[in-house]
Amino acid sequence: MIHGSTDTSEKGFQRLITRELQELHGYVASTSNEFDREFCLNTGQLLQFIEATQPITFQEIQKKGERIFLARLDSKIKEKGIIETLRRGVKFFDRTITLFYPQPNSSYNRKDQAKYEANIFSVTEELIYADNNKNRLDLVIFINGLPIITMELKNAFTQQAVKNAIRQYIKDRSAKDKLFHFARCMVHFAADTDEVYMSTTINGTNNFLPFNKGLNDGSPHPPFGAGNPAPKDKLKTWYLWHEVLAKSSLANIIEKFAQLVVEVDPKTKKSKKKLIFPRYHQLTVVRKLLVDAKEKGVGQRYLIQHSAGSGKSNSITWLAHQLVSLYDKTNTQPLFDCVVVVTDRTVLDKQIKTNIKSFSHVKKVVEAITGSAKDIKELDPTETSFSKTTHMRLALANNKKLMICTVQTFPFVLNAVQDMQEKRVAIIIDEAHSSQSGQAAASLNALFASNQLAELPKDEEGAISTEDLLNYLIQSRKMLANASYFAFTATPKNKTLETFGIPQEYTDENGEVHKKYIPFHTYSMKQAIDEEFILDVLEKYTTYQSYYKI
């Protein structure tokens, strides 16, 4: 039974989503006949939006010619993709035409709020998208007449599972058709009543990724694994149209998450464009962290237990970028003066800089804390002390919003933050590497000796656990009151759980009360294995005795 309906057909599922998009979120329903297949948009809605929000510009378009404008817009989307076009608008002669108004950070900004509310969100069923065939798409989502999401729907009750929808995209949808040109749409969803998958590229191969909650829905409690929990009186995939496709959610994804990046192969030096859309757990953890930080203010600790295969690098970069612009709960001032990302991964360092660059026009938004004379002189030409502590102090004094440092540099960062209590800092810790060995371990021991700190235990190969190091450094500073900590790790040790986790009391079988610590959000290893992002090392495991019995 579909949410109070006895229609268990694929069309019933389609109509349910359309109806709820209209009733829950105020979408407008449009028809396939309104779709201009030449320019791949709903022309009427686009011009209606421009006339309502930019009347003088609309008159200019009428004077110069609608077709000239549509051709210019088509060329911009082809060159820059739909995300950049929605964010930056399009130049038409001497005017920049706004195509989408984002939701303002502060609710006090009534003028910008009114502009945001002028956006037209619409849904079209059974869209015929090409002249050379009569192929139809089940649902297409538009913003101001521009298509941003396509959907193929199947109903699990009719044994037409989500894999059939994926197959339909691979076999029956051609990249030659304009709607499926790369970056013309933001994302393509294949969904049934149990599961959702997504892809940003339709090219005849299977590029689809799971877009599911996981059986635990991000909680630290079992059951773990792929798929979705079964909510009461709702379909398992209800979150797609109830949550993700809500107007404020889509506007937020366009402005803060989705991005077109250029990746360069280090060997061949060839560049390749890649369109990134967040998976469900990435979208959810970033949003939940922002809500909690806004509500509770500075001085909090968060542990995010995300397994390998979770896309941790993107989650960290999205969080870093959005913490920079996060307002406090009064919506009157930014919560943090700056965000510091602690990592030893050069790939993450590069990714953060690339991703932030795509969101900002300002040069050198990201400051790497190196302690070098050159970098320090750029912040203060008169400075004569060249150290990492000085670099961090000057970066804070110069109101640098986003900084990156290594684990080895982290003690100096803590010193500077401790000395500048008036600065509110968010510290994101990436624990991707399990140990510091060789030269890194030697430099750390030298650092500890010079600061009269205890030398940390090492393993048989002389390596220091990054996790032990970070726990020690943070606890030795007694958790700075002017900082919030966001720690990402796949398999936290007990000490890490105690340092960053949420305390919970429980009673054992003897009636004794104990305290345990749990993560703020969990993407489990079992889910990653079930979704085939990591291998199950125990799948083909057998004991020595069992092998010889076989």
From TrEMBL:
MF GO annotations: ATP binding; DNA binding; type I site-specific deoxyribonuclease activity
Pfam families for this protein: HSDR_N, SWI2_SNF2
GO biological process, one term: DNA restriction-modification system
CDD domains in the cross-refs: HsdR_N
Domain Helicase ATP-binding: 274-521
InterPro entries: Helicase_ATP-bd (IPR014001), P-loop_NTPase (IPR027417), Restrct_endonuc_type1_HsdR_N (IPR007409), SWI2_SNF2 (IPR040980)
Name recorded for this polypeptide: Type III restriction/modification enzyme restriction subunit
